[in-house]
Amino acid sequence: MIKAILTDIEGTTSAIAFVHETLFPFARQRMDAFVRTHANEPRVQAQLDAVSEEVGTPLCLDMAIETLCQWIDEDRKVTPLKTLQGMVWQEGYRSGELKGHVYADAVEALRAWHAQGLKLYVYSSGSVQAQKLIFGHTEYGDLTPLFSGYYDTNVGHKREAASYRAIAGDIGLAPEQVLFLSDVEEELDAAAEAGMAATQLVRPGEGVPGSRHDKAVDFSEISLGS
Q1: Which stretches within the chain are classed as H helix?
Q2: How many separate domains does the chain show?
Q3: Which entry of 64, 73, 128, 199 is 20 to 30 Å from 220 by CA?
Q4: What is the pLDDT of residues 47-96, one digit of tens each?
Q5: What 8-state DSSP symbol labels residue 153?
């Protein structure tokens, strides 16, 4: 019996276009100024140090910023980048320049599942901070009270079964009691290898369906089994 649902964001609860056409350009345009303005703050300095660790050599501020912008252009799933992007987006959400996109069908299902007593969790390559910002500033209001926890790449990469085992262990459930939702087949493969149930979201115009998992065009078609 499914007792918890673990969901991806991009292409699953939210449009891929929102991330690539709104969030990424917003961070790209503001990263340089943000880092220079806040470089002496411990929270930012820690991430700049992590950038140097990632490339394997100490970087000056200019080189660190250049590397961050290059990673944005390459859509790299690198933790210090995701963390700094989250900080930039936080300013945008607070100012009202950004509003998190979540599909209406996802909102309806998440609210219904929460009301039924199911535990809801998020697992995204975006930082936990960025996840909370998306769900905390939507046109449907603050959705963060629906979720019991958030996971990002600090728990492990999304295409590795060990990450899903770690999440199940942290949640305190057997993997088979958790349903993972994603649009990416390789992520679903990893979750299934870990023992989780898996459903692929195949939203029109957003990705190519695989062949090994249950599929749904939106959240209304997701089956939790018996």
Answers
A1: 16-17, 24-38, 42-55, 61-74, 79-95, 104-115, 128-136, 161-171, 185-193
A2: 2
A3: 128
A4: 999 999 999 999 999 999 999 999 999 988 888 998 999 899 999 999 98
A5: G
pTM (whole model) above 0.85: no
Residues of the chain with pLDDT under 50: none
The string of DSSP letters for 22-56 reads IIHHHHHHHHHHHHHHHTTSHHHHHHHHHHHHHHT
33 and 56 share a domain? yes
Backbone angles phi, psi at 10, to 5 degrees: -60, 120
Query: Does one domain contain both 120 and 41?
Result: no
Looking at residue 106, its amino acid is A
Residue 226 in domain = no
- The structure tokens 């945008």 sit at 92
